[in-house]
Amino acid sequence: xTMRLQAEQPQTYRRRWAVLAVVSAAQFLATLDLWxxxxxxxxxxxxxxxxxxxDVSWILDAYAIVLAAxxxxxxxxxxxxxxxxxxxxxxxxxGIASLGCAVAPDLPALxxxxxxxxxxxxxxxxxxxxLALSAFPARQRGTAVGVWAAVGAVAAGSGPVLxxxxxxxxxxxxxxxxxxxxxxxxxxxxxxxxxxxxxxGGQRPGFRIDRVGTVLVLGAAGLVxxxxxxxxxxxxxxxxxxxxxxxxLAAAFVxxxxxxxxxxxxxxxxxxxxxxxxxxxxxxxYTGFAAMLLGVTxxxxxxxxxxxxxxxxxIAPGPITAGIVSPFSGRLxxxxxxxxxxxxxxALFAAAGAWPLASAGVRPDYAAVLLPxxxxxxxxxxxxxxxxxxxxxxxxxxxxxxxxxxLAAARQVGSALGVAIFVAVLGARPAxxxxxxxxxxxxxxxxxxxxxxxxLATGRQRTATSAALRSPLGPLSSRPNPSxxxxxxxx
Length: 491
Description:
The chain is mainly α and about 500 residues long. The chain has three domains: about 210 residues, Up-down Bundle (Growth Hormone, Chain: A), CATH 1.20.1250.20; about 50 residues; about 220 residues, MFS general substrate transporter like domains (Growth Hormone, Chain: A). It is about 75% helix and about 0% strand.
């Protein structure tokens, strides 16, 4: 019997890592497509002329809003229907939508396919982590989470650069390149992913998706973003009417989750100050980050007339710096606490916005204006992001899965709002006015201040939250309780 077990171990070991490779490939694509389109917006605006910047910005916002709204119900549905089945279905939907984006004849068709892409990504993200965790024993699950999270970070950082390289041929390649990867991943998933023990039965038999809550989130986020992106070309009365409608739906969502027996988001999550502050900080930070990333992209391409490839390479120092500093964030958090990390990161993020505001001139000067700003942002991101996401550990034990998904949704809604605010403050003619870009940097300063206040509100957390960050691989990459990790995977 001992010899038999020893003979099976290498095969089991290889299978675990094969499962992780399959689900990480899907995680890479889902995260990459959130950011890869930024660099393509100027070209898309030209190709779909007379489209405005607010029109093409919906290519970003449709993805972020639908992804945010569907993350929670998709993760919970996978626990009932089976993670393997949902993962493969999500891959197929994502692949079909990617092909649709690549061949889209007009802008509305492209935006619709981006929304469908986001629906597939919403299923892929939680199920991919759940499948990875179920393949590893308890002692190795921290490593699996660390690899999975690192792949997502690489995808987010490499999005603009990879997009620039693909744009050398055509913007359609940024979507078409997904299709062969999806086909290989689906084939590998059918052959490799386990058919049993994939999380089936995690919910009670009578579990139902909170459809009303999902629709209210979609409507509220969609209307608010519509009001902001259309503000530059609309009469004020229409802007305020649409904005008010979005806020009414947001209030209706809050009232709905207080009454619903099994709501999309449990209100008791926000009774924990550290968790509420973490969610607010993530929302604020990603609002500023999305505005800054799009602002840098358009400044390089529209005002300074860099080629798409040169602009992509010029953005790269920010993500590279974040990747270099991130491995040290766990040790720093264990020493200085979450509050100190977030406040320090917010100060650097504010400096990243203040630098171009103070030093930008009429003539392009990348080394003096944008490079220092990108380097400051890279360090800020490494300090802020893992610290705030670790606030999931402050959620009630029974709500850890929902808590993780709420933080992920806050990131996506903040990203969508950041793009919408950027379009609103930049105005109708971004290529003709430096004043619009100055207002964008002011948005970064404001969101950095809100992020700092959220960090202060988290309190002094050097215990559970800091422990989650102690490993060089970042949040959840140490050895937490296996049952806790499994519940987080559902979100």
